[in-house]
Amino acid sequence: MTVRLRRIVVGPLATNCWVLHADGDRRALVVDPGDEPDRVRAAVAGLDVVAVVLTHAHWDHVLGAGAVGAPVLAHADDGPVWPHELATLDRLGHWDAGTATADLRAAGHPLRPEGPLWDGRVDDHLVDGQVLTVGPLAVDVLHTPGHTPGGVSLHVEGHVLTGDTLFPGGPGLTGWPLSDFSTIMGSVRRLAALPAVTAVHPGHGPSTTIGAERPHLDDWEDRGW
Ligand SMILES: [Zn+2]
Ligand SMILES: [Zn+2]
């Protein structure tokens, strides 16, 4: 079964929103519709979106979640994350973009929501080991906490969508109050046990493979980020 993966880069943090379906089948998942809902909707025109999956509930992954018109799925352990994001917006007047915040604001990104905020509604909770059926595809849900408590990765047919858990060159950032470095390294080690040829598609930037990243895990552990 050939997997079709389409990437739509959305929002000020260039978040990768993924549309996933089997070749020749209309049933699709939308993963991390983080912003620009019009572009996300245009990308799924002609497809039947069976669900929206949030790899985690950081603002840059969720803002378009309610606009796709499909049930929203996320891990229950990320329940505190979206309220924390809203509290940050309330307190600072803009989103927290981690280490990129100052540079983005200096470059003129207000880091404030332009459209309506996501209402935070999650229709169903994902659990580790769950299999999502997307037409003929079986998509495995892996709970990969650390960047956030309820981070998930999706594994399907030689591809893994890792959200902000695993990138080329290291794990996602763990500077947020709800993040934990040793937890994310446990998740990264679990992902690294996938076959070496597995394509890794993160929540921002280019893709990589498990085989390209696996040799570096001990270095990441040693450097501490
Ligand atoms: Zn994140
Ligand atoms: Zn992100």
From TrEMBL:
Name of the protein this chain belongs to: Hydroxyacylglutathione hydrolase
The record's annotation in CDD domains points to:
metallo-hydrolase-like_MBL-fold (cd06262)
Query: Where are the compositionally biased (Basic and acidic residues) regions?
Result: 213-225
Q: Which UniProt keywords apply?
A: Hydrolase
Metallo-beta-lactamase domain location, by residue? 14-204
User: Can you tell which superkingdom this protein's organism belongs to?
Assistant: Bacteria
In terms of InterPro entries, this protein maps to:
MBL_Glyoxalase_II, Metallo-B-lactamas, RibonucZ/Hydroxyglut_hydro
The protein's GO terms of the molecular function aspect are: hydrolase activity
Ranges for region Disordered: 204-225
Which Pfam families did the record assign? Lactamase_B
Q: Does the entry feature the keyword Hydrolase, yes or no?
A: yes
